Amino acid sequence: MRVLGISGDPTGKSKVDTLVKTVLENSKYTDTEFISLRELNIGPCKGCFSCIKTNHCTVQDDWNSVESKVKEAEILILGVPTYYGAAFGINALTHSFLERWFSLRHKGIKLNLKKVILIIVSGGEHENTAITNLKTFFEIYHGVTDIEVIVSRGSIPCLVCGEGESCPISFAIEMYGEGLKITPDIMPSLEKQNDVIEKSKLILSK
Ligand SMILES: Cc1cc2nc3c(=O)[nH]c(=O)nc-3n(C[C@H](O)[C@H](O)[C@H](O)COP(=O)(O)O)c2cc1C
Questions:
Q1: Membrane-spanning residues where (predicted)?
Q2: Is the CB of 79 under 6 A from ligand 1?
Q3: N or C terminus: which one in the chain shows less Cβ crowding within 10 Å?
Q4: Which domains does the chain have, with CATH numbers?
Q5: What is the mean pLDDT of residues 28-45?
Q6: Atom of ligand 1 nearest to the CA of 87
Q7: C-alpha span between 173 and 80 (Å, rounded)
Q8: Positive or negative CA dihedral for 140, 149, 126, 38?
Q9: Minimal CA–CA distance to 34: which of 54, 12, 55?
Q10: Which residue in 6, 14, 134 sits closest to 75, CA to CA?
């Protein structure tokens, strides 16, 4: 089985990268690869339809270097942070990448994908929009029905921006209540999410 792990984390510091790598490192399959979208320049679909006849996107950017990897992958691990999660679900970096899959669904679906593992890291319990939207993307548009989901709690921006205890639109105050003191013990670190780490280790291990 060819296993492709894709991280849509633009920071390189979030739990998204860590969890995608944890699944890959503990997988029973040896043909694995990790790709970070933040290291690539992949813009959105331009709607030019030049891919219709050839199933090949002619827009010149780093999609060209991952297109064949996406086509060959049999298992995809997709790690995604939720940005404006209640509105959009997934972040724009991941969205641009997924829009380019349009070139792989003309005259049939040009994928070998059998299974998708979604890793959603959400600060404020906005994972459900991301899960619903991504399931629709893979099931309805790309014909993959074997989808598993891992959810991890990330840090909402108001916990780390420095103003979260007093800002009039602080989402941290909304979540944790008035008089909030932002201390290390309320930060949702991965060390406190042992169930998430264990699930990530086990999911492809047997
Ligand atoms: C621009 C931006 C918007 C965000 N919007 C939301 C949001 O609407 N809902 C939410 O749950 N988390 C939101 N987050 C938090 C991210 O989900 C979180 O930063 C990400 O999952 C990484 O968390 P970590 O650094 O703790 O791993 C946002 C983060 C950024 C940078």
A1: none
A2: no
A3: C
A4: 3-155+189-202 (3.40.50.360)
A5: 98
A6: 8
A7: 25
A8: negative
A9: 12
A10: 6
pLDDT in tens, 91-143: 999 999 999 999 999 999 999 999 999 999 999 878 999 999 999 999 999 99
Q: Helix (H, G, I), strand (E, B), or coil: what is residue 132?
A: helix
126 CA distance to ligand 1 centroid (A)? Answer: 9
The stretch 63-91 carries a mean pLDDT of 97
Q: State in Å: Cα 49 to ligand 1 middle.
A: 33
Q: Tell me the CA distances in angstroms from 67 to 2, 44, 63, 91, one per residue in order.
A: 14, 14, 6, 20
Q: What is the rounded average pLDDT of the residues 53-79? A: 97
Q: Which of 80, 156, 187 to mutate to test the pocket of ligand 1 (most atoms within 8 A of CB)?
A: 156
Across residues 141-156, what is the average pLDDT?
97
Structure tokens given for 64: 């060209």
pLDDT (0 to 100) of residue 75: 98
The residue contributing the CA closest to ligand 1 atom 25 is 14
With beta carbons less than 8 A apart as the criterion, state whether 34 and 77 touch.
no
Global pTM value: 0.97
Residue to probe by mutation, ligand 1, list 82, 93, 125, 176, most atoms within 8 Å of CB: 82
